[in-house]
Amino acid sequence: MALRVVQWATGGVGIAAIKGILEHPELELAGAWVHSAAKNGRDVGDIIGTGPLGVFATNSAADILALDADAVIYAPLLPDPDEVAALLRSGKNVVTPVGWLYPSAKQAAPLREAALAGGVTLHGTGIAPGGFSEKFPLLLSVLSTGVTFVRAEEFSDLRTYHAPDVLRHVMGFGDTPDKAMSGPMQKMLDGGFIQAVRMCTDKLGFRADPRVVTAQEVAVATAPIPSPIGDIAPGQVAARRFHWEAQVDGEPVVRITVNWLMGEENLDPAWTFGPEGQRYEMAVRGNPDFTVVVRGFQGEPGDEVGPGSIVGSADHGSIVDSADHGSIVGSAEPGVVGTAAHCVNSVPAVCAAPPGVATYLDLPFVAARAAPHLS
Ligand SMILES: NC(=O)c1ccc[n+]([C@@H]2O[C@H](COP(=O)([O-])OP(=O)(O)OC[C@H]3O[C@@H](n4cnc5c(N)ncnc54)[C@H](OP(=O)(O)O)[C@@H]3O)[C@@H](O)[C@H]2O)c1
């Protein structure tokens, strides 16, 4: 019997997750919650751009709570803990890229209680945080002993990120440095990345200072830089860097860094990706030291459609091709697809886990499944 899975929100991650569910031999699509009124009642196949699936989207949470389903992949724009608790209480396992990666006992408490009441499990995952920032460095660290330092770093060109509102109003691109540095981004990122750092320090056994040190830097344009928010004027923020660091006796032992650049030209300071280009990079110092570089999860400027692109509508984060919020076009950024895949592939293990909140440190080894035509 296949596990029945509901997709909660059909943005970039949600659409990729539905496609992943349809390809996974142990899963079947049971339903979809949508935020946008225009998608309400539509066949999910129509929303994701395939033929009809006979599964219809709803914007009623009550409909989803009443549905007979094993799991929900919860991927809305912003997490609502009460919503997640209700899903758990209704007896549905929840897998999500929007939080609860490695929550403290206090952060986890209300959701653990809901999960226990529903006899199900909550699991936070993703790509970064949720993959290259902690899970994969930890997995790779098994090839070393006497570890002294772990670094996880993202290098991305945000000219492929076609979400102008998010870039401008949330991420602070195009703002003055002061405004960007005091904006919401650091706090929004802290939640997930501090959990990622703590997962590394706890698992590796560093006697780290409980305070994770955070820092941010900006680079400004020195000439107009074309971007998804239009030209970024000289003096305005065109690149951002965020760091999270755990220390032992003042020395760094785990560091996660995110480098987000609007290209590599006309920046002050003159930041670049270096010869390696866009990538995720993981380094372990111990016996031996090594570095692993992963490519393929970042699109290149000029690619047809970037992550969560909005074409021709104010419908939040959906990829649509017409003013009536029509069918989905283009393909999502590989990083978005990877995030969705991590959720989808985790569902069987999460459904089989003991009730509560389960992190990577609790779940068994999880992998993808072969394509249907090869299995
Ligand atoms: N951990 C990671 O590595 C990672 C990676 C990628 C994304 N994420 C997170 O995953 C989530 C989904 O990302 P995405 O790329 O799919 O985003 P997205 O393309 O912007 O889609 C988000 C969806 O949320 C729904 N939505 C819009 N406004 C909403 C509102 N006010 N309240 C509730 N739902 C609303 C919409 O669903 P409908 O279209 O169905 O109406 C929208 O399509 C985000 O929170 C993102 O930060 C995490």
Summary keywords:
10 helices, 7-stranded parallel β-sheet, alpha/beta, 375 residues, binds NADP nicotinamide-adenine-dinucleotide phosphate, 2 domains, globular, 7-stranded mixed β-sheet
Q: Counting H and I runs of at least 4 residues, what is the number of helices?
A: 10
Give the overall average pLDDT: 92
Distance between the termini: 17 Å
The helix-and-strand class reads alpha/beta
Helix content: 25-40%
Query: How are strands sequenced across the largest beta sheet?
Result: 3-2-1-4-5-6-14
CATH class of the largest domain: Alpha Beta
- Radius of gyration from CA coordinates: 21 Å
Beta strands, count: 14
The helix-strand sequence is EHEHEHEHEHEHEHHHEEEEEEHE
β-sheet strand percentage? 15-25%
Ions, cofactors and other ligands present here are: NADP nicotinamide-adenine-dinucleotide phosphate
Main β-sheet description: 7 strands, parallel
Structural domain tally: 2
CATH topology of the largest domain: Dihydrodipicolinate Reductase, domain 2
- Uncertain parts: 306-330
Give the CA-based shape.
globular
Summarize the structure.
This protein has 375 residues and is α/β, with parallel strands linked by helices. The chain contains ten helices and 14 strands.
Task: Give a description of the structure.
- Pfam families: DAP_DH_C.
- This is Dihydrodipicolinate reductase.
- It comes from Mycolicibacterium canariasense (Mycobacterium canariasense).
- InterPro entries: DAP_DH_C (IPR045760), NAD(P)-bd_dom_sf (IPR036291).
- With 375 residues, the protein is α/β, with parallel strands linked by helices.
- Helix 1 packs across helix 10 and helix 4 packs parallel to helix 5.
- The chain has 2 domains: 148 residues, 3-Layer(aba) Sandwich (Rossmann fold); 162 residues, Dihydrodipicolinate Reductase, domain 2, CATH 3.30.360.
- About 7% of the residues have low confidence.
- Bound molecules: NADP nicotinamide-adenine-dinucleotide phosphate (NAP).
